[in-house]
Design goal:
Helix 5 links the parallel strand 4 and strand 5. The chain is globular and about 60 Å long. Helix 2 packs across helix 3. The termini are far apart. The longest helix is centred in the C-terminal third of the chain and has 22 residues. By secondary structure, it is α+β, with helices and mostly antiparallel strands.
């Protein structure tokens, strides 16, 4: 993770003025691939995905294997269609991979605003990715601030629910069938 963050931040400094995005990819329930197809097959799939990401490595794109089944890319782009084309290409390559398990990649994308740090962009791309992870008909989404607000609101409710129950603000009634 550290080399990716360092190299991506250096890229953004060196190409100041360019438009940047971070793309983060995760495989939905990757552990099941190892369980059903075996660890060796899972490792081969990860190598294949890493090679596919490396196809984009250039003077204006940094790629990285963050951990397990999580990959990332920091890339310059002209318009959002460029980013859609990248994830579509990677997904198509993964779909072509010969393995007996269904592979569902999810891509979250965060567009840099006001000189954002790559670490923050990765976090925001992760928030976006979690919105669609495991969905068969959506494999990518772009981060927007509403995703973060919704996540914080849900966490606030989660944090306050126990206190509300203990203070009798919430009561449970069970109706038999």
């Amino acid at each position: 993770l550290k080399p990716f963050l360092f190299n991506a931040n250096e890229l953004m400094k060196n190409l100041f003025g360019s438009k940047f995005a971070v793309i983060r990819m995760d495989i939905y329930r990757f552990k099941t691939v190892n369980e059903f197809c075996g660890r060796k097959a899972g490792d081969e799939l990860l190598k294949y995905i890493a090679d596919t990401f490396r196809e984009f490595e250039s003077d204006d794109t940094i790629v990285g294997h963050l951990r397990a089944d999580i990959f990332a890319m920091c890339v310059t782009y002209e318009d959002t269609q460029n980013l859609i084309d990248i994830v579509s290409y990677i997904k198509n390559k993964i779909d072509q991979y010969n393995i007996s398990c269904k592979i569902l990649p999810a891509f979250g994308k965060c567009i840099s605003k006001d000189g954002m740090d790559v670490s923050l962009m990765l976090d925001y791309a992760d928030i976006a990715m979690q919105e669609i992870k495991g969905k068969a008909f959506r494999f990518y989404t772009f981060y927007d601030d509403n995703m973060r607000k919704n996540m914080l609101y849900e966490k606030k409710i989660e944090n306050e629910i126990l206190g509300a129950i203990e203070s009798d603000y919430i009561k449970t009634y069970v109706q038999p069938k």
